[in-house]
């Protein structure tokens, strides 16, 4: 059974960076044909795709967040990590770690609030 667990800061001040760590169990972040995504749900809105890293370590980003989002992986810890820079209150959301083929596996989500 593939499981993903988010670890986030909870509260971030405006202009700082948000770091979300996604720990994977039951599969490897290098598993062939799997991708690992970061998705968020803004308050009162639908899901927004932030970006992804594939099994070869190639990254893809939403054009709306491309200049601020960075995804990396730590194969020794079987984790992938999102960094979102220069956050504003509009980045307040529930952040999800998602993975597998066709977004098959989801973490429970973690609330991140941007506020001074």
Structure notes:
The chain has no helices and eleven strands. The model has no long low-confidence stretch (mean pLDDT 95). The strands form two sheets. Strands 2, 4, 5, 6, 9, 10 and 11 form a seven-stranded mixed sheet that branches. It starts with a strand and ends with a strand. The relative contact order is 0.33. With 116 residues, it is mainly β.
How would you describe this structure in keywords?
single chain; 116 residues; 7-stranded mixed beta sheet; 4-stranded antiparallel beta sheet; 0% helix; 52% strand
Q: What's the short story on this structure?
A:
The chain is mainly β. It has no helices and 11 strands.
């Amino acid at each position: 059974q593939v499981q993903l667990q988010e670890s986030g800061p909870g509260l971030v001040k405006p202009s700082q960076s948000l770091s979300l760590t996604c720990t994977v169990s039951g599969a490897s972040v290098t598993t062939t044909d799997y991708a690992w995504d970061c998705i968020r749900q803004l308050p009162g809105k639908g899901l927004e795709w932030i970006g992804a890293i594939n099994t070869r370590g190639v990254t893809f980003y939403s054009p709306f967040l491309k200049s601020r989002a960075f995804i990396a992986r730590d194969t020794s810890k079987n984790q992938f990590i999102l960094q979102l820079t220069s956050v504003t209150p509009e980045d307040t959301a529930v952040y999800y770690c998602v993975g597998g083929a066709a977004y098959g596996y989801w973490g429970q989500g973690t609330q991140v609030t941007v506020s001074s």
